[in-house]
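Bumping with the actual sequence this time:
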Amino acid sequence: MKAALLTAIQRFEIRTVPAPSIARENDVLIKMNAVGICGSDIHYYADGKIGDQTISFPFTLGHEGAGTVEQTGEKVTRVRPGDRIAIDPAVSCGHCDQCCAGRENTCRNLLFLGCPGQLEGCLSEYIVLPEKCCFPISDTLLFEHAVISEPLAIALYAVGQSPALSGAKVAVLGAGPIGMAVLNVLKLKNTAAIYVTDAIEERVAFAQRYDPAWCGNARNADVVKEIAEREPLLLDVVYECCGKAEALLQAIELLKPGGTLVIIGIPGIDSISFPMHSLRRKEITVKNIRRQNKCTRKAITLLGNAINNFEPFVTHRFSLEQTPEAFDCVAQYRDGVMKAVITFQ
């Protein structure tokens, strides 16, 4: 089969590699139809690592995927050959203390697609996953839209970990796919006002179509001043969705006493300093988000019910052979890219 292998920093090669096969009774062989490019993929592409997770080349990236069931193990009942599915890229063990406590997203033995030292990614024609990672989708949901279920599941989980949001005033810092997914979920929660910022003008314009209370470019405007003028008592919750230290500092300034900072973005650096006295005096709660937990089915349902809100996310489509161009486009934020998807013929 063909696979796109990252062979060095910012270098892909399309190679023929051995196809995977079913080894366990609950395995599912999946023919990939679409793979979305995530910001974490770009960290590996540009830097070769996230924190202490460092790639040994060659390596296959990709974890936002949708495809068709090709074959199943003898005890698989959840799906059958021919089913169209979206995938949950996390394989939890099911028996550690975290799994037993219902925290599969922090499983002690977690294996994640496209994560160094764990599992090869899904930028290949076929992959094998346990049946619990396979979620049937309707015949009307395009594969390229089904891949959005992964970032949307993160958004659902992150908003679900927030305090009560009815009547709340909130901000989303970072208008990429995660930030826009968070915004769409927040609009279902009867929030009083949603403020959005980004440092890329095309993404500010993209966010405007979802009618936030205010949307601004963090490079051209003093976003703290702009939002504070509109909300003198400041905000209840801020969702940091871009992984930038300056956004975290803005979030702390924007939060009212007793507010909550929800950190979703993955930073490109290993350490960030916080103004501890501001955190202390305001008694701000800091909530870190580790991927998602049991939200994939909810995300697929939301996609089906509100597909018009999410169709615009997919702005660019590439073939497997065009993977180098696709990653370069996303890494450089070219041509107004929001979500780039690799499609398989």
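The tokens above came from a reply further down the thread. The longest helix spans residues 149-160.
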